[in-house]
Amino acid sequence: MELSRRSVLSALGVVLSFSVSGCSSDSSESPTPASPPATKAEGTRQTPPPVTHSPTQTATHTTEPIPTPRNCPDEPLVDDAERDDISPVPEPPESLDDGATLAEYVADYEKAYQWQEWKGYGEKIHEFVLEIESEVTRLSDTAVIVKSDFAVVSGRVDHTGDGTPGHFDGAPYAVRYLLTTEAVWRTAKRYDTVRTVPEPDPRENGVLLECY
User: Which of 121, 168, 129, 166 lies closest to 151 in space, CA to CA?
Assistant: First the structure.
């Protein structure tokens, strides 16, 4: 039986539709944009414990020169605080292999260092807290950097002397410690300048705190 003109055109339409669809599958597709990197939320902080640290150890070697200690101080530049809420200046680490131990060492050292900056308030300070988050980066077999992009001192201080201390917060800052088998260096900058200036590097401008 002879097909009608409408049936023929309908069949051709199906074939053409199939052909066009096949051609479109060969065309290049627009790449899916990469998701932006996640950013750490800032500006929200609860009252911290006396010392907190979140160490992360990486094995990143570098070509930057590691300083040799010169003009070592006769005594460590940081004194013991002689307070129940501040640990004494820690003894040198026995090795540079344990990131958690090194982070704890720096947290205790930094708290004692910060107390020297605040001890002028003396007995007016009823509580002294350091919050610090740190990352440990190995430079060589004999040197590591312990890096914190956020550290802040807080606590309670009696400004009026009436026995009713109020809460205080220091300015947040970034701090770096260079630990070697011979000595320890420190450098720091205010937190609000870390993103606009080169980050502090104790290999270049660190203060030599102690030789072992």
Answer: 129
